[in-house]
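Write out the 3D structure for:
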Amino acid sequence: MKYALNIAIILILAPAAIAQKTILWKVTDTINSKTSFIVGTFHQFGNSFVDSIPEIKEALLNSELAVFESVDHIEHTRQMINKREPSPEIEKRLKKKDLEKLKAIAENWNVDIYKLKPVEIRWKLQQEFQKVRCETTKPTDEFDHFDTYLQTIAEKNNIEILGLETDSAQLSLIEKENKEPDWKKERKNISAWIHQMTTDKPNRNNCDLADRYRRLDLAYEFEKECEADILIFQRNNEWMNSIPNLVSSKNTFIAVGYFHLRRKCGILEQLKEKGFKIEAVKIKPVVDSGYKK
């Protein structure tokens, strides 16, 4: 009897486990006969990874509308930052060796590090670590940003695009989430990430999420509550003011960070609560993505 019970439990749990081994979800409005798709992105993965999952591009090309966190082009954001007045604070707060290393790391950032706020420098270093040390992009990639690549595909195929917010709003929210940290609060964090970018033995634990995302080994934890933070909880709720209407009126493709799909406050669960049918899209295993496992 115990053996039979264990088999029953496995059979019950297995579909849920299989269903979550994906980053692409189908959203159906059965009343208005609209079929939409939501992909949970990892922003720092390059175009070769996206191309390794053809179901994503297929879903995008079959859509009437493509929705992203922001549709501001990166050049617009760079110009916005470079218009700021430079601050000499970075020279006072960072050790000379760290500053020289940071300048080398930021050589291709196309923004003046003297015009970046401390939290922005830390975020840029974290992003660079993912791309370089965790190898979320390949040297042959033309695009080093998951969402930007998809947006370019939509534009080239004359698919209408829409942004849920602006880049300037995102930068403001990052500051608020981190309680507008100054150099005193961020100096050690920045120094630690500079070390991770330049050491011969970086901490691979910092690549854990990237590695799991690459394997589609993701936990959506739909049964769990969310923390009342700004970057996930608040933005999800704000986005949900418009997303239900979008997927009811057009066959829509939505690309937002994977964390926005998790837990009860996630977009998927909120849409489900509103009566939409949510299904995981089965993704064919990638034979050789060219990435380290």
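Residues 21-280 form one domain.
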